[in-house]
Design a protein that fits this description.
2 copies of one chain form a homodimer.
Chain A: E1 3-14, H1 16-24, E2 36-42, E3 45-51, H2 59-67, E4 70-78, E5 94-98, E6 101-111, H3 129-144, H4 151-166, E7 169-176, E8 180-184, E9 190-194, E10 200-202, E11 209-211, E12 222-226, E13 237-238, E14 244-248, E15 251-263, E16 269-277
Antiparallel strand pairs in A: 1-4, 1-12, 2-3, 2-4, 5-6, 6-7, 7-8, 8-14, 9-12, 9-13, 10-11, 14-15, 15-16
Helix pairs in contact in A: 3-4
């Protein structure tokens, strides 16, 4: 499997504190060493860095750290390959143009028996299940709407195609068009929002401490989405299986809580629908 | 206008010598300071670096130099903006997926009254004429062939769509799918192929000298395509208006020589078709 990291904010923010902890999991504190990628939105544009070397050791990773890029939306991924070779074309995040926007997508999971995209308008370049699923999603959305619809319709359509794709396996993902960020949980996805009053946080992966008061100002809202929490003294929300969350300007716009995996009396693993709040 | 640089080889080669001269033209030896981009193919994948700062001063440019990436196909662009703001989304090279491949495109020129791509499958993200033209090309090719055809058909289709787009203004470009590289000249494009026996070359932009014998081995073939020559003691071929050239593995596969602009007896500027060789 892999790990995901996303950031959605209302003010351009650097992701160095989170990314430096996250990339230690690529060879130092965990074994997600099969390449990494990180995409920064800058307006409608995307600056993307990818390497097939482990993020913790990559000079490209060092460049990201030094460059101190500030962005409203960032998606990063460290890979532990399940399908597809350890090559650049199989390195997340994947990017496709949809309705004249860059859409950036990173996946954690494993999907099987996806529809064949040969001969379709959106075709995968590499050999991962992840890119194939994203291409299916892109083609689905473009065929459903030839021009960008309102957000409510986008979210509903993304949910619909996700429900279809999730039938093919484990489908945790983070998706952004540079305005909003969507997280979908199949097995593991957590989020938190940092806003005033700001406090300190200690990274799980190397004990490093930050005081956000030194960096943030009143009114700033910064949401972090990650496969597993990155700090030990902040309150992370663990998403449930099938959960969807939509952030914009660092704020939660909508959430579908999803299904809690529960141990049923007979010892089997059952599903319990929690609720749907928006 | 802008300047273009492309490299097509039969062995993974670093482009640092050429790129270091080229990027001096972004603020030091010339005024192409409105951002830059460079894309390196690695197999079917692409590693791309973009900055809206001048290439000569950019830390991203320094990172490219330090990282010493070797590639069979590279396309770089330094921008002097004519249409579109100095933002990442307007920074060449542009990338689109066509038939399950990354296609990388950089343009030098100015196009007007291009077909409106609103509502089409391939839409521009930024506001440049260049990206709009590339989207038109991508949609044209995908609609003509749902699966990748043989190279001869690809080249013929690219020529056909280029003839249409070139009616809209000045259309110098370099295009690659990671296997081959196409150069099209409207006003300025030059190329040369380095192969045994290798010699020395001196960069035009800073007098720096390289001896390719120290880096290349017998059998290596490295073609460089550039808006203007980068070295002063090598024989660059100046392409003619309407000229097309197709390289693969560092070798010229096909060339359409194009049209030489000639002064006609009556003093007007006329076109003289030179020939068509393949």
């Amino acid at each position: 499997m892999c790990q995901l990291l996303g950031m959605n904010c209302n003010t351009p923010t650097d992701i160095v504190f989170s990314f430096e902890g996250f990339r230690r999991r690529a060879g130092l504190t965990d074994s997600h060493s099969d390449g990494f990628g990180i995409a920064f939105f800058e307006g409608k544009g995307v600056r993307v860095f990818r390497d097939n070397r482990p993020a913790s050791l990559s000079p490209i990773g060092d460049c990201v750290k030094q460059y101190d890029i500030k962005s409203l939306n960032v998606i990063a991924h460290i890979r532990k390959a399940t399908q597809g070779s350890v090559d650049i074309e199989n390195t997340h995040p994947f990017i496709r143009e949809i309705w004249g926007e860059n859409w950036v997508f990173a996946h954690n999971g494993n999907l099987h028996d996806l529809p064949d995209m040969t001969g379709r308008f959106c075709q995968p370049i590499g050999s991962t299940d992840s890119e194939a699923a994203f291409c299916y999603m892109a083609e689905f959305l473009k065929r459903r709407f030839s021009r960008k619809p309102v957000e409510q319709e986008i979210f509903a359509a993304v949910q619909e195609v996700t429900e279809f794709l999730a039938q093919h396996g484990t489908f945790n993902f983070i998706l952004s068009n540079g305005e909003w960020m969507i997280g979908h949980c199949a097995t593991n996805l957590h989020y938190l929002t940092r806003q005033a009053p700001f406090g300190k946080a200690q990274r799980i992966d190397d004990e490093s401490v930050i005081d956000f008061n030194d960096y943030a100002k009143d009114g700033d809202k910064v949401t972090i989405i990650a496969t597993f929490p990155l700090t030990k003294d902040e309150k992370w929300t663990k998403m449930l299986s099938g959960g969807f969350v939509f952030f914009k300007n660092g704020e939660k716009v909508k959430e579908i809580i999803g299904v809690e995996k529960a141990i049923i009396d007979d010892g089997t693993l059952g599903d319990r629908i929690v609720n749907d709040c928006s």
